[in-house]
Design brief:
Helix content: 55-70%
Radius of gyration: 20 Å
Distance between the termini: 24 Å
Structural class: mainly alpha
Shape: globular
Largest sheet: 2 strands, antiparallel
Number of helices: 15
Strand order of the largest sheet: 1-2
Length: 353
């Protein structure tokens, strides 16, 4: 907050970062990565009885916003890469994300496999015989990187197709997958298909999304939040989730609320910290699952009261974020930056920080 001549306080607007990045988009990515880590903390801790019921329900409800908002923010910055041709796209998107996906899938395997049985949920446990299959069946905790590479190639191939056609096609696909009408037999593939619409929306609908963000106000944030709760509640009470279009509509409302909330938060000083996390999503995303697994293994067997469980989940998520960033700084300091970039002369030097 800053003080005016009259002595009153007003919000401090976050300046748009250098390089043309959108400050509120970094906030959106910051919110998303925190929710991703919280989601993993809940999934790891819940089998051990360390997650209170209301928090588990909230985590499930946030599914409508968490990854769609992340993909929307990622799509906002796609156009400049596409304009630079295939060589740049294959280097900066396919090779980089493919390398990180494979490397950190192996890291996760090496960390999680030796842990005592039951320390990690099934989605995080890979059998050695399954490792070669991760090229065809994206690892459930690393699918986002796989999807970004796939989306980028598809966008380059379809760059001359009108945006409204791509939005309509991916919207229909999202509707069908969200209603369970179209199934792929693998959860990560279904997520990739279901949320492609939001990546395309960030790519082709950037101006529209920016206008929505510009109109953000506390009243709009509250209104859309209430609407999202109403839609979700009605869907659950009336059993409408599998009705075509309901899940997609809930995603749209939740992401709209996420954009409005991010734009509002970006206008306040506290938003700077969230935006800083948003510019460091890569090291957090890559390392959070192995770290949450280790923290869960340390906590397994304790029996805290229900009220304390909220603090435990929050603490595990916060420590995982902090350790992810510390690990990044440490590995870069010892010249092991290839954990976050292509090795040697192929390095992309992705923007982190």
């Amino acid at each position: 907050m800053t003080r005016t001549r009259t002595g009153r306080h007003r919000a401090t607007t976050t300046r748009q970062p250098a390089g043309g990045r959108l400050g509120w988009a970094d906030v959106a990515k910051g919110i998303s990565i925190v929710l991703v880590v919280l989601h993993h903390a809940v999934m790891f801790l819940e089998p051990h009885g360390l997650v209170p019921g209301p928090l588990a329900t909230l985590n499930l409800a946030l599914t409508s916003m968490r990854m769609p908002l992340f993909l929307l923010a990622s799509g906002l910055f796609l156009a400049p890469v596409l304009e630079r041709g295939w060589r740049t796209l294959l280097h900066r998107r396919v090779a980089l994300f493919g390398w990180l996906y494979l490397l950190w899938t192996l890291v996760q395997f090496a960390v999680v496999t030796p842990l005592p049985a039951g320390s990690a949920p099934d989605f995080a446990v890979l059998d050695a015989a399954e490792l070669p299959l991760v090229l065809l069946y994206p690892d459930p905790s690393m699918w986002f990187l796989y999807a970004l590479a796939l989306y980028s190639v598809a966008a380059r191939l379809l760059r001359r197709v009108p945006g409204w056609v791509l939005l309509a096609a991916t919207g229909v696909l999202s509707t069908l997958v969200g209603a369970g009408i179209v199934e792929f037999g693998w959860h990560a593939w279904e997520l990739t298909a279901r949320y492609a619409f939001f990546f395309v929306l960030g790519w082709h609908g950037r101006r529209f999304v920016e206008r929505v963000a510009a109109r953000s106000s506390p009243l709009w944030v509250v209104t859309v939040a209430v609407l999202a709760v109403a839609v979700a509640g009605t869907s659950v009470l009336l059993g409408l989730h599998d009705v075509p279009g309901v899940a997609f509509a809930l995603n749209l409302v939740a992401v709209t609320g996420g954009v409005l909330a991010s734009a509002q938060l970006a206008r306040w000083r506290i938003g700077r910290g969230v935006a800083a996390l948003g510019r460091r999503t890569l090291p957090i995303y890559l390392a959070n699952v192995p770290l949450v697994a280790l923290l869960t293994a340390l906590l397994a067997g304790i029996d805290p009261p229900a009220a304390a469980q909220y603090g435990i989940v929050a603490l595990v998520a916060a420590v995982a974020v902090a350790l992810s960033l510390a690990l990044y700084r440490g590995l870069v300091a010892v010249r092991a930056g290839w954990f976050y970039d292509l090795p040697g002369r192929w390095a992309v030097h992705p923007r982190i920080g």
